[in-house]
Amino acid sequence: MNGDTVNQFNTFIAGMLGLFSIVVFLYLIDYAARFLRPVSIVQKVGASGIVVIQSVYAEAITAPHPDEEFRIPTIPGRVVAHAGTSGILLAVDLVGLMELARQFDGMIEIVPQIGDFVAVDEPLFRLHGGIVDADDRQLRGSVALGSERTLEQDPTFAFRILVDVAIKALSPAINDPTTAVLAIDQLHRLLRRVGLHHDRGEEICDTAGKLRLVFLMPQWEDYVHLTCTEIRHFGASSIQIMRRMRSLLENLMQTLPPPRHAVLRQQLVLLDRTIDEHYNFPEDRAIARIPDPQGLGGALGVQADIERATAENEK
Question: Could you give the CA distance from residue 35 to residue 65 in angstroms, rounded to a whole number?
């Protein structure tokens, strides 16, 4: 540039860069908005939950169980307490602890579950057999603690997040049962995966079949109660939620093996009692008892049930 002359090439480059920056900025806003939509969040949590379930419950439900009945000693040889900073148990090195127990010819009982808050001086391990001679620092180094739960080894945390999304959507301040149905869709997906996998992970044996590690894990009933109880209470007044919950329970009873059915039947009974308590009109009760994977999206069977309920009410 000299005197009254402006370099047109530099001006053009600056203008193009400015336009490019605006386009990128608008794209990032659109991407963030789509990423933060409830459907995107619950899908990502559901996908992460599937991954952690597969890693934690790697054994299929049809896998054979050891014939030997293991008995855990009631009195440990030694108890190792947590030292350092209090926190939530995030992960455990099961392979390392198994090898340590094998080397010392003993058995390790891990006291807290993944996701439990562990305070200083609370029991962390109960030691049985030769493992009582192990170094406390080596044992404590096999666990990871943090300030908040993660999905690394904690499948129940995925359920907890989705249930929280559902019950927040059902709060009177938000009143968004459709978002709650989206969360139930992912819970349905996770429950089926848990139900098809072996979930008895308390007793872990070495290759010789000798008990080396006791690590408490949530059972099938725990997952069902976690999924259903709070959503049923908070969504009792929503026909949409009642129908979606029934669809979840009936579908799982059709697709999972019989050992899984007892707690599902119990939840169906509770669902019926909830409907009877919250709906005064027989027509509403009839609609609320129709299973619907969309919550309140289809009319199949609705009119017939309403007419039947109306006829019963007129008698």
Answer: 43
Same domain for 122 and 105: yes
Angle between helices 220-234 and 239-255 (to 10 degrees): 160
pLDDT at 36 over 80: no
Contact (CB, 8 A) for 94 and 150: no
Residue 222 lies in a domain: yes
Quote the pLDDT of residue 66.
47
Q: Which long-range contacts (CB under 8 A, 24 or more apart) does 69-74 make?
A: 70/203, 70/205, 70/211, 72/107, 72/109, 72/128, 72/211, 72/214, 73/107, 73/128
Q: Where are the beta strands (DSSP E) in the chain?
A: 78-81, 87-92, 106-110, 117-118, 123-129, 143-146, 203-205, 211-215
Confidence of residue 308 (pLDDT cuts 50, 70, 90): low
Buried b (16+ CB within 10 A) or exposed e, 255-274: ebeeebbebbeebbebbeeb
Same domain, 105 and 176: no
Q: Which residues of 55-81 are buried (b: 16+ CB within 10 A; e: fewer)?
A: ebbeeebeeeeeeeeeeeeeebeeebe
Q: Give yes or no: residues 129 and 176 share one domain.
A: no
Q: Band the pLDDT of 246: cuts 50, 70, 90.
A: very high
Domain count of the fold of the chain = 2
Angle of helix 220-234 relative to helix 261-278, nearest 10 degrees?
10
In the structure encoding, which two tokens stand for residue 250, read together? Answer: 């009936």
Largest CA distance in the chain: 100
- DSSP-derived pairing of the beta strands 143-146 and 87-92: antiparallel
Taking the C-alpha atoms of 224, 229, 232 and 235 in order, what is their torsion angle to the nearest 10 degrees?
A: -120
